[in-house]
Structure prediction request, 236 residues.
Amino acid sequence: MSDVFGRALLDYQKGEYTEDIKTYSSLDEADVIPVPYLFREFDEMPKIEQKALQLARGKVLDIGAGAGSHALYLQNKGFDVTALDNSEGCIAVCKERGIHSTVVSDVLDYANERYDTLLLLMNGIGLAGKLNNLSNFLQHLASLLQPNGRILLDSSDIIYMFEQDEDGGYWIPNNGTYYGEIVFEMEYKGQKGKPFDWVYVDFDTLQNACESNGLDCELVISGEHFDYLAKLTLKK
Prediction:
């Protein structure tokens, strides 16, 4: 079953919530994504997400919309917002929650319109999968922007997950890959989805990638746990 995430959200939406989504990654032990958290209101969101929503302008594309909590908040504020997700289950939930404009698609396959704001929250840059895909990913995002548009994304520097030595350096496996690259797998009600690549990008690495792809990259705020919000705009 490929859409375990969408199925979990649909169950919650129908009032059939009995368990959370289990996650397994190549870096860490098993963890869970609490399904109710994906349906959070603005007041329950981390400061980074609240700030991103406050910086949204004009016509908005919420990429990797999930249960649509960010899109719904903006729509209720009067924004013209489209929720995009490659999960049919997620988009069904977005529709049931009242989001007017939705798209089932991978963002890399989507090129229909241009937007004033692209939102990629909950480590949305992770959709690039691997660091060597980041340039193509950023170029595609740039192609979806209006000339004065902005991309608002958050990510984390997961260096903290590696062991530190006495002089403050980190022990990072030297296997030729970027330390933020992870393989994830999700499980819900005993069924596992397909493993997928995900990447956490530290701010300096993101800024360098933007610089070589015609984008300005501004650090908006840093969170409490090595996370940050960045605002990307097209170079003038």
Summary: DSSP finds six helices and twelve strands in the chain. The first helix runs from residue 4 to 13. The mean pLDDT is 92. Residues 4-234 form a domain with the Rossmann fold fold (CATH 3.40.50.150).
